[in-house]
Structures are given as C-alpha cells and as structure tokens.
Write a structure and sequence with these properties.
Helices cover 41% and strands 11% of the residues. It has a six-stranded parallel sheet, with helices on both faces. The longest helix has 21 residues. The structure holds nicotinamide-adenine-dinucleotide. The site of nicotinamide-adenine-dinucleotide (NAD) has 28 residues, from α1 and α4.
Length: 264
C-alpha cells in the first residue's frame, strides 16, 4: 500500500515508518520537523516537510503520491505543556486533524489509523484498563485526543472512512537505527534509563524528579489560572500523567520487596 505517516520523523512515527517499509509498503512521511528529526526518517521513505495546516501541500501530497491509507501520529504530546497552553493542543491535535480528514475525504483516501493515548481514560477505576472503560480525560492533552477520536467517529458515520484508534501509553524501545529523542524528555521510561545509565543522578520515579516537579508546577499554575478565570475549583487529587505508570494492586502487595531493591 501507499501510506502517509504524519509525524513520521518523531519517535514512534519513525519506527512505524521503518516497519511499514520492511513489510513492503511505500511510505511518505509528512512532518513539519518542529519536534521530529530529519535523520530519523528511513532513507527509503519520501519526506515532505510541511505542516498539517498547510492545506495545499497536504492535498497535493495525498494526490501526487496516490495515498491509500494514513497513519496519523503528528501531535503535541506533553501533558504539562497542554495544561499551560490548551489552545495550542486543540489547534494541533484536533483542528489540524480535522483538516487532514477533510483532505482525505476530498482525495478519496478511506483508511486511517490514529495514534491516540491512554490519557483519554483519565484516572481509571480499575487496572489494567479495559478498552471499554469510561473516558474521562483530566488534562487538555487527553481531551484533545478524545475530541479527535469523536471526529473520526463522525467522519466514519458520514461514510467514506474507516478508522482505528490505538490508546497506548509509555511507548518504549528502539530499532537498530532509531530510539527516543524528545527535548525536554518527560516520558518515564527514558528518564528511568537515564538514571540507570548514570546520566541523571536523580530518582526518576515519584514527585521529586525535575520533569515531574515541573509538570506539577504547571498543573498547579493552570488550576490557579482556572480559579482566577471563574472556573470551578479543581479536585485536590493528583492529575495522572500518561508517562507515569499507575500503581496496581500487585504493586501494593510487592511494595516491601520493591522498596528494598528499587531505584530510590
Ligand atoms: N510517546 C508515547 O509514549 C505516546 C503514548 C501514547 C500516544 N502517543 C502519541 O503518539 C504520537 C507520536 O508520539 P511521539 O512520542 O512519537 O511524539 P514525537 O513528538 O516524537 O513525534 C510527533 C511528530 O509530529 C510532528 N508534528 C507535530 N505536529 C505537526 C503538524 N501540525 N504537522 C506536521 N508534523 C507535525 C513533530 O514534528 C514530530 O516529528 C503522538 O500523537 C502522541 O500523542 C505517544
């Protein structure tokens, strides 16, 4: 198939591109390179450096490469930043996504896989999270993912589109060529690995790591701003971060052993 990977110069998109090429597909990467890396794009893929909101380039790319399916990875994805700049997240993760759906409809591209997030569940009542668990995002990042999922549902109901949304979190791993490279890095697994490799002496779990402390500071700031703006007082429970693994009943049972040999 001829597949467009939006955000294909980013962490997950570059690996997806490599895998699609290995499986024999033709891949066009569509990325503005604001957060991605040119060198992460496999040489056998075609790179179009452009923004999803550049409607002319988007449509001409879909047409010129006779695209048959889209893997939609392009997004902003920092929970902390989304609390500080919710408009930025709605614009990129929802409005730019809707522009993609319109361009697909007008060029008869009917299949899309969306990189959603477990952040759509918010604070789940049960773990592991069931696919049918209620969706109650607790930050603008998760809300933007859920809103775009609804747009996908509407587009499919109106005919001409088939879609799948993948709600994962804490993606980890690397290929021989590419690994994770975010700046700043806020994801748990690379932070843990930096500590294990001696590159960061501070504990990566809990609230004491600078990345989490910064996230908590921004969330507190967003809460204060909301109250100043007349919003309702936020509940005092901690906002979940999809980059931070939630504690399970098994963890509680194992706590003494983990504390003895853990990374703290
Ligand atoms: N990393 C995770 O653990 C994780 C977990 C769940 C979901 N996701 C989702 O998966 C996707 C990829 O995540 P990632 O960690 O690889 O992120 P990333 O930041 O490494 O990659 C995103 C890419 O999209 C590009 N991009 C963003 N907005 C764009 C736009 N408007 N037009 C063109 N290009 C644009 C960026 O330049 C970047 O290369 C995101 O949608 C993210 O929300 C990530």
């Amino acid at each position: 198939m001829r597949i467009l990977v939006t955000g294909g110069a980013g962490y997950i998109g570059s690996v997806v591109t490599e895998e699609l090429l290995h499986a024999g597909h033709q891949v066009v990467v569509y990325d503005n390179l604001l957060e991605g890396h040119r060198e992460a794009v496999a040489p056998d893929a075609t790179l179009i450096q452009a923004d999803l909101l550049d409607d002319g380039t988007l449509r001409s790319t879909l047409k010129a490469h006779r695209i048959e399916a889209v893997v939609h990875m392009a997004a902003h994805s920092s929970v902390a930043e989304s609390c500080e700049q919710p408009e930025k997240y709605r614009r990129n993760n929802v409005i730019a996504g809707v522009a993609l759906l319109e361009a697909m409809r007008d060029t008869s591209v009917e299949k899309i896989v969306f990189s959603s997030s477990a952040a759509v569940y918010g604070e789940p009542e049960l773990q592991p999270i069931d696919e049918c668990a209620p969706t109650r995002p607790t930050n603008p990042y998760g809300a933007s993912k859920l809103e775009f999922e609804k747009e996908l549902g509407n587009a499919e109901a109106s005919g001409g589109l088939r879609h799948a949304s993948l709600r994962y979190f804490n993606a980890a791993g690397a290929t021989e060529k590419c690994g994770e490279h975010h700046n700043p890095e806020t994801h748990l697994i690379p932070l843990v690995l930096q500590v294990a490799a001696g590159l960061d002496p501070r504990p990566a779990q809990g609230d004491r790591h600078p990345a989490h402390a910064e996230g908590d500071r921004r969330r507190r700031q967003a809460g204060r701003q909301g109250r100043r703006d007349g919003g309702s007082r936020p509940k005092r429970r901690r906002q979940p971060d999809p980059g931070r693994r939630q504690r399970t009943a098994r963890d509680v049972r194992q706590r003494p052993r983990r504390q003895a040999g853990g990374i703290r």
